[in-house]
């Protein structure tokens, strides 16, 4: 699956520990990401950052805190 490209538009600041995790991983407003579904039944979303070679497996709590615009 090729995934969907999107730009991060907003990140919730409700959870300071989650916000710190995002900062450490380079997830920030304006960053372009590629989003793909994780393994079936895992409940995870795979997010690849345009600024890094790293792919992150994010759960629902994390993905619900990020707003994106599809490119």
Helix content: 10-25%
The helix-strand sequence is EHEEEHE
Q: Quick one: overall form?
A: globular
Strand percent estimate: 35-45%
Task: Give the class from helix and strand content and strand pairing.
Answer: alpha+beta
Distance between the termini: 17 Å
The largest pleated sheet is described as: 5 strands, antiparallel
Which ranges are low-confidence, i.e. pLDDT below 50, for 5 or more consecutive residues? none
Widest beta sheet: strand line-up: 4-3-2-1-5
Number of helices: 2
- What is the alpha-carbon Rg in Å? 11 Å
Summarize the structure in words.
The protein has 71 residues and is of the alpha+beta class. The chain is built from 2 helices and 5 strands, in the order E-H-E-E-E-H-E. The model has no long low-confidence stretch (mean pLDDT 93). A 5-stranded antiparallel beta sheet has the order 4-3-2-1-5. A hairpin with a 5-residue loop joins strand 3 and strand 4. Helices cover 20% and strands 39% of the residues. The protein is globular.
